Amino acid sequence: MGKTHSRRRVIAFLAISATALGLSACGGGGGGSDSADGDLYAAFDKIDQGMSYEQVRDIVGFDYNAGKDDIEGRRINYKWESGRGSAQYVLLSVTIENGRTSGKIVGGYKGNNSKFW
Q1: Are the C-beta atoms of residues 105 and 45 closer than 8 Å to each other?
Q2: Residue 114 CB contacts under 8 Å (≥ 6 apart), including other chains
């Protein structure tokens, strides 16, 4: 876990943060929300270090619906969104590294938060 590993984590964090912040600003006024809405802020609070994708999915309540990014072949960022096209848009991104959670970011109408282990 040298400087290269730390630098890669920072770069990955910045990339995820930029995506979350950019997408959280996309919400417009009015409109409904996705049929698969969940409370992604509540899910963020419940997701903890070392969880599997299946555990995270069970907390969120549905499979990722906003894509996934494979970084370095062993780190995957899964993304969930709710409220697309509304003022209540939320994006949750969870990093799974070597099969276990190593970070999470949520951004949207209630603000932004992140945690990495």
Answers
A1: no
A2: 13, 16, 17, 103, 104, 105, 106
CB 105 within 8 A of CB 54: no
Q: Is 90 exposed, middle or buried (0-12, 13-18, 19+ CB in 10 A)?
A: buried
The vertex-48 CA angle with 42 and 49, nearest 5°, equals: 155
CB 82 within 8 A of CB 62: no
Total structural domains within the chain: 1
d(CA 14, CA 36) in angstroms, rounded, equals 28
Q: What is the pLDDT of residues 3-31, one digit of tens each?
A: 555 556 655 555 565 554 454 444 433 33
Q: Give residue 66's domain range.
A: 3-116
Phi, psi of 99 (to 5 degrees): 85, 0
